[in-house]
Fold Transcriptional regulator.
Amino acid sequence: MKARRDVFQAIADPTRRAIIGLLAGQTLTLNTVAGNFNISQPAISKHLRILTECGLVTVVKQGRERHCTASLQALQEVIQWAEQYRAFWNSRLDTLEDLLNEAE
């Protein structure tokens, strides 16, 4: 059985991040998504496959077209990971601010 890709792998690529941004507010056909990029449709399909495997995009076939929708709930994993660093740096910056205020 093939291991499921993780969301970090998906957002590591700028084209995939752009696809997520494009789909964040709307459902688009595969051809419409591909039309927004200066790369081949097979390359876009590969990016969409990776995004689908990690749960960031859902592709539904309707007739002859494939409709792509963003599933941004999967980004919650990234938010939780980044949150620990935000809390760390906020604490460090608060300490720095206290030190600077004491120096004045």
